[in-house]
Design brief:
17% helix, 5 strands, Puta_zinc/iron-chelating_dom, alpha+beta, binds iron/sulfur cluster, YkgJ family cysteine cluster protein, single chain, three-stranded antiparallel sheet
């Protein structure tokens, strides 16, 4: 997520940059050593343990998940405050996938158009 303007109604892949829905939809869990007190990058003060070998981002293990590192409004200018340090699940989740669509739907947002689907939607007939 970066500091790009959000365009109302926009649902192409660039909306991913300010969306944040996936940061407020799932438990974001990972191997404990991804935290900085285990040699990794994620600030451990922003995590909590929920298994002997696993941690999750604080706020994401809740009935209405929202990562403590997420700033701004979902779908309207959200950004990750620890973007370069974020854990592996955040790096793995790709825009336009089923998980992305599920997260966006939780917030009343349409699925993103990516890759072939986006090109097909924007192609002009010859
Ligand atoms: S660490 Fe950043 S990218 Fe990952 S869930 Fe939290 S706000 Fe989102």
């Amino acid at each position: 997520m970066h500091d790009l303007p959000f365009v109302s109604g926009q649902a192409d892949a660039s909306s991913c940059l300010v969306c944040g829905a996936c940061c407020a939809a799932f438990r974001v869990s990972f191997y404990w050593a991804e935290a900085d007190d285990g040699g990794g990058t994620v600030p451990h003060t922003l995590t909590e343990s929920f298994h002997p070998h696993l941690r999750c981002m604080r706020g994401t293990w809740a009935p209405a998940p929202r990562c403590v590192a997420l700033q701004g409004e979902v779908g309207q200018g959200a950004r990750c405050s620890i973007y370069p340090l974020r854990p592996s699940p955040c790096r793995a989740l790709q825009a336009g996938t089923a998980d992305c669509a599920r997260a966006r739907a939780r917030h009343g947002l349409p699925p993103l158009l990516t890759g072939v689907a986006a090109r097909e939607m924007t192609a002009t007939p010859s």
